[in-house]
Design brief:
Elements (H helix, E strand, L loop, with lengths): L8 H8 L5 H16 L5 H28 L13 H4 L4 H19 L3 H4 L2 H18 L7 H22 L4 H24 L1 H6 L5 H5 L1 H19 L8 H9 L1 H14 L5 H24 L1
Helix pairs in contact: 2-3, 2-8, 2-9, 2-15, 3-5, 3-7, 3-8, 7-8, 8-9, 9-12, 9-15, 12-14, 13-15, 14-15
């Protein structure tokens, strides 16, 4: 791939990391399909939730790109995909403007949700923006990134999207939101597993750095298993199809886990990152189909 021109459209598209958007789409998808399962679907808040989630994910990617470069983590030893600031594709002043634009746009698309969910939507939106910054600048460096993924890629988006469809949140949706967060956290585990040596030398103490690579391998496997076990609780509320279909997810998940262990280190783990993103989408589609039909 040829290097894009500085601050060009191609550079911004690469910085947005479109391959990561499955992590933003799946929680909203599950919230909507849960609402459909209960006979409720409101298209405008559904579309707004997707747009807000996508923009917040892009915003988080911009923030991560900017601050990791400033902290010296995106140096020549980096094993992950190339980053826009580190490669000079986007200048630091331009990235600061990009972060501001993404933050403002997400707020503009999220603001109309007040009409469907009340003023509490402002508090939720503000928390999303604040922790979007805190993730890269502080919490990910203290081993708390996985907790944020569970909350903001599971509990918050699934429950909020469902609430905007139905004006309530059931215990079943809460369980599903935790399962979604567990599946999505696999993406962060792989990312930190690949970067464990570079993170450690750079002073970024992720959960993987804390527990070690062998424990991280087990964590990756059990996140998927725990998500499926949580989905089996859906049997208790007459959603046997969704619960049964979720089990299929374990096939690609375990295959990816085995490959991750075999590769162990190096740039080849970027392929595992892509497979994990694919598996998250598979999980979301399987459970959504089960809930709707």
């Amino acid at each position: 791939m040829s290097a894009p021109s500085t601050n060009s459209l191609k550079a911004w598209l690469l910085a947005a990391r479109p391959q990561t958007l499955t992590g933003a789409a799946v929680p909203v998808m599950l919230g909507i399909s849960s609402g459909c399962s209960d006979g409720r679907f409101r298209i405008i808040p559904a579309v707004l939730c997707f747009l807000f989630a996508f923009l917040m994910q892009i915003d988080a990617n911009f923030i991560n790109d900017y601050y990791d470069f400033k902290k010296g983590l995106d140096d020549e030893k980096r094993l992950g995909p190339k980053r826009a600031c580190a490669e000079g594709w986007i200048t630091l002043p331009a990235m600061r403007r990009g972060i501001a634009v993404a933050t403002i746009l997400s707020g503009l698309f999220g603001l109309p949700l007040i009409a469907y969910g009340g003023w509490s939507m402002i508090a939720i939106g503000v928390c999303c923006v604040v922790f979007c910054f805190l993730y890269t600048t502080y919490m990910a460096r203290k081993g708390m990134g996985d907790l944020l993924v569970l909350v903001f890629f599971g509990i918050v988006p699934v429950c909020t999207t469902y609430y905007l469809q139905t004006q309530t949140v059931t215990w079943a949706v809460a369980v599903l939101s935790v399962a979604c967060g567990a599946v999505t956290d696999g993406l962060l585990v792989v990312n930190n597993y690949r970067d464990r040596d570079n993170d450690k030398s750079g002073g970024k103490i992720t959960l993987v750095v804390k527990i070690g690579e062998k424990a991280a391998e087990k964590l990756y496997l059990w996140l998927g298993i725990a998500a499926v076990l949580l989905c089996q609780l859906l049997w208790w509320i007459h959603e046997p199809i969704a619960a049964a279909l979720s089990v299929i997810y374990l096939v690609p998940h375990c295959m990816t886990w085995r490959r991750m262990k075999a590769i162990y280190s190096g740039k080849a783990l970027n392929g595992i990152l892509g497979e994990t993103a694919r598996n998250i989408l598979i999980f979301g589609l399987l459970v959504s189909i089960g809930l709707i039909f």
